[in-house]
Amino acid sequence: MSVSIAGRADWLTDKHLQRLLAALAEGGEEARVAGGAVRNTLMGQSVADVDIATTCLPEETIRRARAEGFKPVPTGIEHGTITVVAGGKPHEVTTLRADVETDGRRAKVSFGRDWKLDAERRDFTINALYADADGTVVDLVGGIADIEARRLRFIGDPEARIREDYLRILRFFRFFAWYGEGRPDAEGLKACARLKEGLARLSAERVWSELKKLLSAPDPSRALLWMRQASVLTTVLPESEKWGIDAIHGLTKAEKDLGWVADPLLRLEAIVPPDAARMQTLAERLRFSTDEAHRLRQWALSTAVEPKTTEGELAKRLYRGDRQGFVDRLRLSLAAARMRAVEDNDALLEAGGFSRLLAFALKWEKPVFPLKGADLAALGATPGPKLGEILRNLEAEWIDAGFAPDRGTLLERAAQALET
Fold first, then answer.
1. Are 117 and 12 in the same domain?
2. Quick check: 206 and 109 in contact, CB under 8 A?
3. Residue 93: in which H helix or E strand, if any?
4. How far, in Å, CA of 277 to CA of 111, rounded?
5. Greatest C-alpha distance within the chain
6. What CDD domains does the record tag this protein with (predicted)?
7. How many domains, in total, are found in the chain?
8. What is the rounded distance in angstroms from the CA atom of residue 172 to the CA atom of residue 127?
9. What is the chain's pLDDT, residue by residue, as a tens digit (420 residues)?
10. What element of type H or E holds 254?
């Protein structure tokens, strides 16, 4: 039975894409949209990127793209990939290929004209679908049936696919989180468990990139559960071993109910301990960005907030600490309390307290201390340790007084301090 995505793929009507497909199909060559765009359209999900597979060799792809007035960029020419910018949109155009040699991280490829061989060297059946320019879907590995069943399967032998690139272990759970239902494919799950030690051969950047994509899924809790069952989670994230992943479900429910944006870093914080030293080690091991590492560390350093805390007391803690760290703490506490509130009235009251404090923290703006060293120098203070000590003491008094003392009052206190 023929399946078409025409009529439900707005991206397919793009005139620049159609011109590119036509140019790559001239003179007996062929070109089809490949992978995620076809999969997501069949699943009724949004499409971010439109990639193309073609029988044209890379140099010919470049020539034809230029002839059409498009901009070709040889982003991965050794693997047959040319990024063609057409109408302002980038399209990865890759020559049909087969893997000749793999080492679990990289592959040497040979170019060809066989669509079935090209499909079979891909990872999962749902990612190995093609679409002609008119929207007709070409399925050579049973991907359509798996999409209809929301089933994620490796193409061919799972172990063979994983040995070609061990990142496919993490991709198995990531794609299951985004597209799968029920239980993961049993053979795929067993292969991931058996070959998990191969993950050590991957770069930290690739591992964290996949984990972030998994943690960005609408609800990654089932995938994380199966990752833990297969001992894959503790292989790449040993910090989660004794902390657990139970908080994820409550967090994703809170996100949905309260309109929070899915936040992979907050979800990570939900499954690891708030230990600053361990979080620094984690960030270094997985090569976090500077901003990611800072946020994770500040969350760990931010002390827990009780639900009965007053706004005034929280303001003092926010001033002395890191607001994002406290916001993360409050979100996680609120999500946990909401889950407990199903059977515990006390937890319902706690949730109300955390909700109040979170709203306050989100709108809170850090006040500016009214005095500077120059103000004390103008009063006759000599630059040095004593000036700094007086300034710090005055700031502490100002904080403890709820930021109420104004500049005049603080100058009077400074003058008194200088007299002693």
1. yes
2. no
3. strand 89-95
4. 48
5. 94
6. NT_ClassII-CCAase
7. 3
8. 12
9. 589 999 999 999 999 999 999 999 999 999 999 999 999 999 999 999 999 999 999 999 999 999 999 999 999 999 999 999 999 999 999 999 976 655 555 556 789 999 999 999 999 999 999 999 999 999 999 999 999 999 999 999 999 999 999 999 999 999 999 999 999 999 999 999 999 999 999 999 999 999 999 999 999 999 999 999 999 999 999 999 887 788 999 999 999 999 999 999 999 999 999 999 999 999 999 999 999 999 999 999 999 999 999 999 999 999 999 999 999 999 999 999 999 998 888 899 999 999 999 999 999 999 999 999 999 999 988 888 989 999 999 999 999 999 999 999 999 999 999 887
10. helix 247-258
Angle between the 323-340 and 345-363 helix axes, to the nearest 10 degrees?
160
What would the two tokens of residue 49 be? 């990127």
**Structural domain of 407:** 373-419
What's the one-letter identity of residue 85?
V
The CA distance from 84 to 203, in Å, is 28
* Dist CA 271 CA 224 (whole Å): 10
Joined together, the tokens standing for residue 16 give 């620049």
Q: Is residue 184 part of a domain?
A: no
Task: Supply 55's token pair.
Answer: 């029988």
Report the alpha-carbon distance of residue 8 to residue 10 in Å, rounded. 6
Q: How many CB atoms lie within 10 A of CB 264?
A: 17
Residues whose CB falls within 8 Å of the CB of residue 390, separated by 6 or more in sequence, listed in order: 376, 381, 414, 417, 418
Looking at the structure, tell me whether residues 57 and 136 fall in a common domain: yes
Give the residue among 275, 278, 216, 291 at the shortest CA–CA distance from 251: 216
Same-domain pairing of 357 and 412: no
d(CA 389, CA 380): 15
Torsion of CA 233, 236, 239, 243, to 10 degrees: -10
Task: Write the CATH number for 32.
Answer: 3.30.460.10
CA distance 13 to 201: 42
| Coil, helix or strand at residue 131 | strand
Q: Are 236 and 199 in contact (CB under 8 A)?
A: yes
* DSSP states along 6-40: TTT-GGGG-HHHHHHHHHHTGGG--EEEETHHHHH
Q: What is the 3-state secondary structure (H, E, C) of 54-80?
A: ECCCHHHHHHHHHHCCCEEEEEEHHHC
Q: What's the one-letter identity of residue 211?
A: L
Name the DSSP class of 144: H
Question: Taking a C-beta distance cutoff of 8 angstroms, is the pair 92, 52 a contact?
Answer: yes
